[in-house]
Design brief:
The protein is mostly beta strands. It is built from two helices and nine strands, in the order βββαββββαββ. A hairpin with a 4-residue loop joins strand 8 and strand 9. Strands 1, 2, 3, 4, 5, 6 and 7 form a seven-stranded mixed sheet that branches. It is about 10% helix and about 45% strand. The chain has one domain: Cathepsin D, subunit A, domain 1, CATH 2.40.70.10. It is globular and about 50 Å long.
């Protein structure tokens, strides 16, 4: 499979007064989280939640800031997530893609809405039972 880039919009979920950012994100289903560079953190005035250890492609384990309250919008879908702060470009990982119910289309090398739910994202909550519902 080739390299996939996707236009996304990033915003500080808690601050409507801060302008959103356009980004050409590297799509990486092998990465769990959203990853953003330090300049995005400064521009969106995001708060650090904690420090996290991240294993990078070289196998090295590094400690990075973990920031939160980021609204990610892509292909008419959105989610609010947190991000590891590292690197020099935005990387869209599996967790925010899953939250927006987006798929990687290998033939066209693009990100697409789940064909089974084209109108809105669908989440899985298979272990949830409602009162009175058989187990």
């Amino acid at each position: 499979m080739g390299i996939i880039y996707q236009h996304i919009r990033l915003a500080n979920f808690a601050r409507d007064d801060i302008e959103e950012i356009d980004a050409n994100a590297l799509v990486d289903s092998g990465a769990a989280e959203l990853c953003i560079p330090e300049f995005v953190v400064r521009q969106l005035q995001l708060k650090t939640l904690e420090e996290r250890k991240v294993r990078i492609a070289s196998g090295e384990l590094i400690t990075v800031p973990y920031v939160g309250g980021i609204r990610v919008a892509c292909i008419g879908r959105q989610t609010v997530t947190s991000a590891n702060v590292l690197g020099d470009r935005v990387l869209l990982g599996a967790i925010p893609m899953e939250a927006m119910d987006l798929f990687i289309h290998p033939r066209s090398l693009s990100l697409i809405p789940n064909p089974a739910s084209p109108d809105m994202p669908v989440s899985l909550a298979m272990g949830v039972r409602f009162p009175g519902q058989a187990a």
